[in-house]
Design brief:
This protein has 265 residues and is of the alpha/beta class. Helices cover 28% and strands 26% of the residues. The protein has seven helices and eleven strands. Helix 2 packs parallel to helix 4. The longest helix has 18 residues.
Length: 265
């Protein structure tokens, strides 16, 4: 099995090294193609207005001056064009990608790009920072990921689905289980805008989230991570809300129906 490893934290990120070690427990054919610089929060963006520059670090390792989506696209369509990967792994992200995070995350976006290209793709993230602890417990992801990935690959999943795995902010021995979850909803009151003043007395701002535990419903990725479980969430690429489509069709009536072509003559 040929595996493509990428991320959004950059080519020198510790989580990328962790994921490369995880991938090598599944296969000896592992390629690392990741952003030159950190791309956190880049979402599913492509560099359409700027040229992409690729730096070859070794035979199977490249740095791309672009987004995570750029990296996957460059890997499949150019660098690995002789034989595309059988699996895309993105991460291990420094911090959880749960709830609304999935719409911002470059880690998730790389898995989205792989899915769009028809390749089974999995995003992996290691939660940290709850309770003020800034120590990232990489050992948790590294300990559990290989077996989870092997089971997922063996089971398979639909083409329009990507898998989002989050590891809780606990040491391996304290993990309380694995749960297949649904995407939760973050408390948006925890979003903060922090204002600061630079050396020239001009204001600038940092966006961030308060690392405070909320009270999410059971079955969500948020609840699983809060309670020390590994969260595995299948995410669907089709964003259409079918129930609303039906309701809108009824509300718009004949306007929503295709017009019959006029007869000639």
């Amino acid at each position: 099995m040929r595996i493509l490893v990428t991320n959004d934290d950059g080519i020198h990120a510790p989580g990328l090294k962790v994921l490369e070690r995880i991938a090598r427990k599944l296969s000896s054919d592992v390629w690392v193609i990741a952003p030159e610089d950190e791309q956190s929060g880049s979402a599913h963006s492509l560099s359409l207005a700027n040229p992409l520059r690729v730096r070859k670090l070794s035979t199977y390792k490249y740095a791309v001056k672009g987004t995570p989506s750029d990296c996957v696209l460059m890997a499949v369509r150019h660098i690995m064009r002789d034989r595309q990967p059988d699996l895309v792994l993105s991460g291990v992200n420094r911090g959880q990608n749960i709830a609304d995070d999935v719409t911002y995350s470059g880690t998730i976006a790389a898995a989205m790009e792989g899915t769009q290209l028809g390749i089974p793709s999995i995003a992996l993230s290691q939660a940290f920072g709850f309770g003020g602890n800034t120590n990232v417990k990489w050992a948790t992801a590294e300990h559990f990921a290989p077996d989870i990935l092997k089971r997922l690959v063996a089971a398979g999943w639909p083409e329009e689905v990507l898998i989002n795995i989050n590891f809780p902010d606990v040491v391996p021995a304290s993990v309380t289980g694995i749960e297949v979850t649904r995407q939760g909803k973050r408390d948006q009151s925890l979003v903060r805008v922090e204002e600061r003043i630079d050396a020239r007395n001009n204001p600038y701002y940092w966006l961030g989230f308060e690392r405070i535990l909320s009270n999410p419903p059971q079955g969500t990725d948020l609840r699983a991570i809060y309670e020390g479980r590994i969260s595995v969430t299948p995410l669907h690429m089709d964003l259409t809300h079918t129930r609303t489509s039906k309701a809108l069709g009824e509300a718009l009536g004949t306007l929503a129906r295709p017009r019959k072509p006029r007869k000639k003559g």
